[in-house]
Amino acid sequence: MAIISLEGAEFFAYHGFYEEERKIGNKYRIDLSVSADVSMAAADDDLNQTVNYGDLYAIISQEMQTPSQLLEHIAHRIIEETYKKYPHIEWAEVSVSKYNPPIGGICHRAVITIRK
User: Fold this and answer.
1) Which segment of the chain is annotated as a signal peptide (predicted)?
2) Nearest-angstrom CA–CA distance, 14 and 72
3) CA–CA gap between residue 23 and residue 92 (Å, rounded)
């Protein structure tokens, strides 16, 4: 088994519980890891027998374009789409970070992590 990860994918998007957040937008960071058997890909040097991290980025990018109120919902959608594309993966873990969340104080990022 191997772990394939994308770390620090950044997007500007329009998510948030408050209407103002959905109007002005914010910067987000996504980290996505999946576990899969890559032994055939490693032996044969065949991209079709592994998880293509370009596909993972495309999934993240697509889901970041759909506004959501909750970071949990974004993470859930990313994981579900990852399993649709790669049903053979053993597990997937995604962290969604919102920079400078509107909490009335100083906070670099709010983060939700889901593993399935």
Assistant:
1) none
2) 15
3) 31
Distance of CA 95 to the CA centre of its chain: 6
Q: Calculate the average pLDDT of the chain.
A: 96
* Domain CATH code at residue 84: 3.30.1130.10
- Sorted by sequence, the CB contacts under 8 Å of residue 45 that are 6+ apart come out as none
CA distance 92 to 114: 8
Q: Which two tokens stand for residue 114?
A: 């889901």
pLDDT band at 6 (very low <50, low <70, confident <90, very high): very high
- Dist. CA 56–CA 32, nearest whole Å: 8
Three-state DSSP at 52 gives: coil
How many domains in the chain? 1
Q: What is the dihedral of CA 66, 68, 70, 71, to 10 degrees?
A: 20
List, by residue number, the catalytic residues.
Answer: 98
**Cβ atoms of residues 75 and 108 within 8 Å:** no
